[in-house]
Design a protein that fits this description.
Keywords: Membrane, Transmembrane, Transmembrane helix. By secondary structure, the chain is an all-alpha fold. Helix content is 71%, strand content 0%. The protein has two domains: 223 residues, no CATH class; 97 residues, no CATH class. Helix 2 packs antiparallel against helix 3, helix 9 runs antiparallel to helix 10 and helix 9 packs parallel to helix 11.
Amino acid sequence: MDPWETLTLIESCIPRIPLYHFSITAIALVIPLLIVALKVTPAQTHWLNIVLLAVHSVYLLYNILVEPPPNVFRSLGVPINAPVSVLRAGLGDTGADVALENLLDRFSSFDPRVYYVRFGHNTLLDCEHCTTFTTHALTALPNLILSYIPTLAFQGILTSPATRRERWRTWTIIPLLLLGPYEFYKVSTARVDMPRPGVEQIMWHDVLYLLRHMIFLVLPFVTLYFLPLAPETTPALVHPVTVLQDTLRRLEMFAGVQAASMRSPSLRQRIVDYWETQEEKSNQGRQNKRVQAEAARLQQSYATGPPAGPLRTKAIEVSKVLIERLKAVEEALSKTA
């Protein structure tokens, strides 16, 4: 069976349910969805996406089950070449509906029936002055474009940086951007012939309407629950060479500042006074007997005379190692330059 015939069969089998029944069904679908949302951690998705998904799904199901596109031929179970008298008899008294009366009058020609199959009931009902393919197509195009905007916006929300699905944005939006032109191309170029006995005419507008809404319904679920999240970003580790380069620049700047400060008499005197004060305080601490005894007990003696204490010995060793490493890095940098 042709895929379009299969889709037509599915479309014809979808039940048209009253609003009351749909409301109960929608509640039955939304409540489990919200229960699942409560179990999802914030790292996986935000609760607002779950609420938007529920609203979006209910809206699409309403358009499919409660308010699908009306179709005179489908509702009466007659082919598209049925006489106008048969249509009037099936619809009953339509005198109060002027737009529907005008539509039935236009069905006296076969071309409006072809446009009805391509562009749907509402396009012909709203555009009474349309007589050519171009005018009907231009009337149907804005509604087609507007139907894609909510789902495109919703996909943008589901793939925002906060959801950690930003890398999937292109892959989830491109199918929608391709589906729109394909749908318009299909309804514009599909063959609409005189129906043959035993062969049902494909109502292209209704079938593509169903296909579009099914994709709109499935795509957000796939995006939200099946596409893997990007790993959590961590601060990039700074390369050791960059750190050493920055250290060398700071040391060079420090040497320049020290040399410049010695050129100013007032600044030089303040520096001398500062270091004399620090030396006096340091000597007072080192000469304290209790401090010396505690340092010796902790094996952190700072004796200056031979032999040097452990702390001073360790400081000298570390200083030598740092100086050697800085020299090696400087040589390596000079070679690369």
